[in-house]
User: Fold this.
Amino acid sequence: MAQRKAVIVGGGFAGITAALALHDAGRQVTLIEQGPYLGGRCSGLDDPTQSIDVGHHMLFRGCSTTLRALGRLGLNEAVRLQPSTTLWFARTEDGATAALRSGRLEAPHHLVGSMLAFPFLDLKDKVRMRRVVQAMRDADDASVEDLDEVDFGTWLRSFEQTERAIEAFWAPLVKAGLNVHPDGASTAQAVLLFRATLFEDAQAYDAATFTMPLGHMMREIEARLNSEGLEVRTSVDVTAVHRHDGAWHISSSGSDVMADDVVLAVGARASAELAGASPDLKKHLVSLTGLKRSPRVAIHLFYSTSWPAMQPPFVFLVGPSPIDLIVHRSAELEAPDAGHWISVLCNDASGAASMSDDALTEEAMATIDRIWPREGTESPARVEVVRSMDATFASRPGAVTLRKGLMLNKEGMVFAGDWMWTGWPSSIEGACRSGLQAATDLIDDVGARPWDAWPAAPRRGDSGWPVWNVTAAQRP
Ligand SMILES: Cc1cc2nc3c(=O)[nH]c(=O)nc-3n(C[C@H](O)[C@H](O)[C@H](O)COP(=O)(O)OP(=O)(O)OC[C@H]3O[C@@H](n4cnc5c(N)ncnc54)[C@H](O)[C@@H]3O)c2cc1C
Assistant:
């Protein structure tokens, strides 16, 4: 029997995962990407060296599908995982630092010890927080989804969470995970995220960092896909996908490709444009374009002298500032080659995106100096400000309902992307899960799913996965 051919349009993490899964299922796979490199939103700046990330990306041990896909590609070395959870926080006003770390208790109590010592909340805040955690744990999936229209800030206040608790604890984590402030976030999505990462598995929030610049990692992924016999075509802009004589025709400015199956991993808007075949489908895809976009702004600062490795590698900021996260990026990299690199990220960044580069740089430098005071003052030798206006969709109230219910598998056409409903917000993990979901939908005639045999996601202590050790000097 002739090998079935699958074309995957879109080379972000969703398309990459779908391509790999379908290859493992015995399909002849072509992965087509519009840009010159794979990676989509998780990539390097569009220059030949690709040594600077578009913006800092972080994973957690709970991002199991992403880690399994990287493991399948033999790219364990591309990530480093904390041996136990440590999350650093710093108050913007005075630079005071604090950490939450997991102790010996099982989830959801594993953070209790450090939470009791957490200086940015008072005891009443901490006691009331237990009720929220309990409510998150107790709710079944259906009742969680009923909370989609309720904003998370209102829901938290219904459990008597103070403004201080919202700003010092919930906001940094919600903004990192959902790219919106709790007051603009879907409670359903927030609860699902916290359950998956913080309150059901004591290991899930161990942070993981990429040890290579993202552009370099994507080139490595492309090389590995090619070496396995998948065809990767970059710089090809697909302009239409239509069905004719029992086959899919994928048209681009270069040439047309035919396929039995097609995965559109290009985003909801581009999917609606490319796959307008059925009115019902088009209607649903167009409704999905109603998901609001949420920007992120990255400020990369390169200093010429190297700093002692005394700082925590990343810090969530607490307090009034456009900046949410400061990352000691050269401390994360296996082979830093771009000077001493501090990466600063603004989430939910419509305000930050309208600031000038100079104002953002000044704000970033002042915050770094306050949080990581050093001898003397040194200006960065180079600064790059990157505004990603479409960084994620915004997990606002109603977004879960909007994402659910998309018809799948129209005669061998399926969709993938972080916007598809997987239970995860707009993230690498959501993208990878949607890729496997798409592949599952296309191989429903096959009993076993070949990716069940992909390496398991690493648990603490597993060998073969680099550990992100934090020295005593880095503990605040
Ligand atoms: C600055 C920033 C920071 C972020 N931080 C994090 C983080 O810390 N953790 C996290 O999990 N997520 C983070 N994200 C979000 C994460 O990057 C995305 O959710 C994820 O990469 C989406 O993957 P995707 O495959 O669904 O979509 P994309 O990456 O958008 O991939 C879609 C691909 O389709 C291609 N395409 C579109 N149209 C066509 C066409 N007509 N023909 C051919 N190709 C086409 C595009 O070029 C693109 O490569 C961040 C995003 C940004 C921008």
